[in-house]
Amino acid sequence: MSSTSIGSALYSGSLSTTRTGGLGAGIDVASLVSAAMAFQTAQLQGMQSQQSQLTTEQNALTSFSNDLQALSNAAFTLTDPAGPLTSVAATSSNPSVLTATAISGSANAAHSITVTNLATTSSAYSAAVATSSTAIATGSLSIQVGSGTAVPVTIDSSNNTLDKLAQTINSKNMGVTATVINDASGARLAIVSNTSGAPGDLTITSSGGALSFTKGVTGTNASLTVDGIPISSTTNTVTSVIPGVTLNLAAPAPGAPVTVNTGPNVTPQAAAVNSFVSAYNTVMGDLNKQFTVDGSGQAGPLAADSTLILAQNQLLSSMAFAMKGNGSVNMLADLGITMNNDGTLSVNNSALSSALQNNPAAVQAFFQATTAGSFGANLSQDVNLLADPTSGSVTQDMTGLQQSQSDLSHQISDFQGQLAITQQQLTAQFDQVDVMLQTLPMMLTQISQQLGSLG
Q1: Percent of the chain beyond pLDDT 90?
Q2: In DSSP terms, which residues pair with 190 in a beta bridge?
Q3: Which secondary structure element, helix H or strand E, spans residue 93, and what is its range?
């Protein structure tokens, strides 16, 4: 407001009858201060509007960054040399006889396996006595595990019950476990080898009238053939015969060979591919929202952000990347993955499963980030350029917005401080004018009286 207009307002205010009904009513200080500060107030509102816009942009970019990080994680899982694409499944034609598991990298193969007998764990038990606390004869025992050294156990007045004898045997850590078994016949001491198969077979002898033991189970090795080769195993978990494959023997079946097939574990592999596609589609959906104009002609708050334009171009280019010299799998379309008009992807899971099952090596080479010139290597590079937590373009864009927001917040705070000082100064000035105007009637009366005395 100009000084002329403010002066007019002061004059009209002094003649106003709205406050006290006549001359001397004073002025509306608050209104005058507000009018004098109208320009600065508009400046502040503009800065606050800009701050609100920056907040909207920050929220949108944070959401996009989170979705981009999810895409980065899905891409890493898909391109990891030790990830699910290297997963191998082992299947048994007769799980009641044996099951099998395989680790990543195991060769695709079929094996014929015949289980003749299972590995057993040696055990022995004593003659029954009335109870576990009944006194038993003293003497000594000798317990030998396999071809190991026999360990003597003395039975005297300190341990001549089954309970105490079991504690004595267990305390010697000789490779057996002693427990008391109770049934209708009374209490018996059972000793079980801690080692299965022939190496754990027990030999127990007694002397001096001590407890006598009966062999319950003789420790024997499992016997099987793998592709016609005879195999002996001290346990029913056979890990060293087929590289990367563990056989879990469940029951003997001498005349019934079991076929174990190892090959791609398609289920987790397809899940990894679909998770990646879903994460990519989420990111592309975020981008489409920013660049789509609504009915009122408004686009998203980041429509003018060059970083998002770059991200869209990089991601579209990554999905269109074609690998060379990789057999029948050189692009996403070879896996049944096609691009839609909006840049999102669709998966034909039947075609994907077929490729995973029939061309596992080509699929792995296509996605592995360690394979030079592969789709996976190119994807990892492009996603990293965007999502790297330190140097990624989206990360730097977020840092820039945060800095702009911080700078603007400081400017607003400083400007508000200046406005407060200006308001105080103007209020003080107009208060003085108000006081002066309210004293005018008295001054006019005095002047009139003085002029009258002159007449």
Answers
A1: 61
A2: 125, 179
A3: none
